[in-house]
Amino acid sequence: MVKERARILVVGGGYVGMYTALRLQRRLKQELRRGEVDITVVTPDPYMTYQPFLPEAAAGSISPRHVVVPLRRVLDRCHVVVGEVTSIDHAVRTAAVTTLATAEDGRAAELIGYDELVLAPGSVSRTLPIPGLAEYGIGFKTVEEAIGLRNHVIEQMDIASSTRDPAVRDAALTFVFVGGGYAGVEALGELEDMARYTARYYHNLRPEDMKWVLVEASGRILPEVGEEMGRYTVTQLRRRNIQVLLDTRLDSCADRVAVLSDGQRFPTRTVVWTAGVKPHPLLAATDLPLTPQGRLRCTAELTVDGTEHAWAAGDAAAVPDVTAAEPGTDTAPNAQHAVRQAAVLGDNIVHALRGEPLETYAHRYVGSVASLGLHKGVAQVYGRRLKGYPAWFMHRAYHLSRVPTFNRKARVLAEWTLSGLFKREIVSLGSLEHPRAEFELAAGGKPPHDPSDDPKGSS
Question: Where is the region Disordered (predicted)?
């Protein structure tokens, strides 16, 4: 039995937030029914994004709605609040929350009290003060960004096909990706694959006309799959006429010209920024202990170090890796750990409420898989290295097993099956970004204008 009525606040609806709340509502089913426990999930989006599927969503292999999991359906015994936690005062156990309603009413943030706090806001893109990045850079962390990038790439091909200006054509067909981690390599691989296929439907475009560039500041890409597989990936990308520039940084992309640290310049309308993430800014607006890197200092039991009734996991938490050979090592901030940490975190909250001993999180990293496009991939699992079709198949099988809910598994599998039987979709729906533009123009108004849509990038 739970000692007393407990109000549990989960901040974030990503991997850790959703899986922790799911675990809690399963383990505390009777307590929830009797009103002894209340679980509130505050999240900026009413869905959880399965980020490993973003590259395939961008390539059109999976529908965007199947990459996300609706939280209200999955967490049917929790209170889901769509909003942002702006600050936390754990000393008095309150969180300041802004929602669409508070903005409409003109009210300040609403205070939510809690007894147990789960901090899982995740991370945000780590950017640098590079000239032009804010104006022209494209992120790749959300499903909206993935679909927007797909539309953008196809629109660049439309521009190149219809212009007579060789400078505009070359800039439209040059695609620069910054960051050689999972997000950058997989997004580049899938989109290059899609664009090469799409080119067959343009009478005056060939795959050889397009220039794809991967910029990585370190001396290797995909460090998670090992040095040998990283070198193999570089070789495979270069065989596809993709320029892989190691030990190179992006110095500027102002005026739609990507200027690199080695002196190369690429006039381009597409700069995709995937150069890492940083802790969510919310963590700095709490009274909880942080590491020098800005993450929550946690114990192996997933409690916030030196603080009662506060828990954390995932990207926001520095969790000791008890399986590491070197002391002081933290678990890597990736999905493999986040999902497993969420299960232990949920169980430990139940243990704490019932006065039981806590469990220690221990998971030895088993390896990684990465897709490089249709039927192409690399993998290192339990020390075994796979490449090509076997690695690509393992990538799909692994992530199909991990995507939440049977509903999503069935839909994704059905789409993969259909994509094997029919041709790719090559439609761009860029007008979705301004759905009222045509009606405003018909009604005598002025449609919204995006400077990035101009062929020369001028306003």
Answer: 438-459
Q: How far does Cα 181 stand from its chain's mean position?
A: 12
Q: Is the pLDDT of residue 200 over 50?
A: yes
Sign, Cα dihedral of 262, 266, 272, 273: positive
pTM: 0.87
Predicted confidence at residue 446, as pLDDT, reads 67
Give the tens place of pLDDT for each residue, 207-227.
999 999 999 999 999 887 888
395 in the same domain as 264: yes
Residues 55, 158 within the same domain: no
Judged against a pLDDT cut of 60, whether residue 459 lies above it is answered with no
Contact 82, 44 (CB under 8 A): yes
d(CA 181, CA 389) in angstroms, rounded, equals 20
- Looking at the structure, do residues 90 and 160 belong to the same domain, yes or no? no
Q: Residue 177 has which token pair? A: 């990706």
What letter does residue 209 receive in the DSSP assignment?
A: G
Q: Which residues constitute the domain of residue 381?
A: 133-275+367-421
Our count of domains for the chain comes to 2
Bridge partners (DSSP) listed for residue 175: 212, 270
CA–centroid distance for 443 within its chain: 38
Q: How many CB atoms lie within 10 A of CB 219?
A: 11
Rounded CA separation 363/360 (Å): 10
DSSP state of 211: E
Q: Is residue 444 part of a domain?
A: no
- Which 8-state DSSP code applies to residue 358? P
Q: What CATH number corresponds to the domain at position 119?
A: 3.50.50.60
pLDDT digits (tens, 9 = 90+) for 229-268: 889 999 999 999 999 999 999 999 999 999 999 999 999 9
Rg, Å, the chain Cα set? 23
Q: Is residue 417 a part of any domain in this protein?
A: yes
CA distance 293 to 316: 10
